[in-house]
């Protein structure tokens, strides 16, 4: 699975991030956890779905980059709102993919990678 290096986390999962990632990677159930990914459909910005959908091996293999983790659907929607708002404030557009990529490039430049 492809995880965004500067993962967005809902308040309810911040202390459980590593455990959740480990369980998702191993194909274990994770309860009411939702993942936010880059959208498969290029007309959309992001997708929100229950992490337990990845228990089905074919779906796990098709999962796009995971950019956020939230507990509960409402927290996932709030995380998406925050990400789109952050993108707008930074770029004056809604190119979330471009914004996320620029954050990674910035971080790599700061660490000399």
Please summarize what this structure is.
The chain has four helices and four strands, in the order E-H-E-E-H-E-H-H. The protein has 113 residues and is an alpha+beta fold. The protein has a four-stranded mixed sheet, with helices on one face.
* Count of runs of 4 or more consecutive helical residues: 4
Distance linking N and C termini: 22 Å
Q: Sketch the major β-sheet.
A: 4 strands, mixed
Strands ordered across the widest β-sheet: 1-4-2-3
What is the mean predicted local confidence, pLDDT? 90
Computed over alpha carbons, the radius of gyration is: 14 Å
Q: What percentage of amino acids are in beta strands?
A: 15-25%
Number of strands: 4
**Helix-strand string:** EHEEHEHH
Helix-strand category? alpha+beta
Morphology call: globular
Residues in helices, as a percent range:
40-55%
Low-pLDDT runs: none
Describe this structure in words.
- The protein has 113 residues and is an alpha+beta fold.
- The chain contains 4 helices and 4 strands, in the order E-H-E-E-H-E-H-H.
- It has helices spanning 17-25, 57-62, 73-91, 96-111; strands spanning 3-9, 33-38, 46-50, 66-71.
- A 4-stranded mixed beta sheet has the order 1-4-2-3, with helices on one face.
- Strand 2 and strand 3 form a beta hairpin.
- The longest helix is centred in the C-terminal third of the chain and has 19 residues, at 73-91.
- The model has no long low-confidence stretch (mean pLDDT 90).
């Amino acid at each position: 699975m492809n995880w965004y290096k500067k993962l967005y986390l809902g308040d309810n999962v911040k202390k459980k991030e590593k455990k959740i990632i480990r369980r998702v990677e191993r194909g274990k159930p994770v309860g009411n956890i939702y993942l936010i990914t880059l959208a498969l459909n290029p007309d959309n910005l992001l997708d929100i779905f229950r992490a337990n959908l990845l228990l089905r091996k074919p779906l796990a293999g098709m999962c796009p980059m995971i950019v956020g983790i939230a507990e509960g659907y409402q927290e996932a929607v709030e995380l998406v709102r925050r990400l789109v708002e952050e993108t707008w404030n930074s770029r004056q557009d809604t190119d979330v993919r471009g914004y996320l990529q620029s954050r990674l490039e910035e971080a790599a430049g700061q660490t000399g990678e």
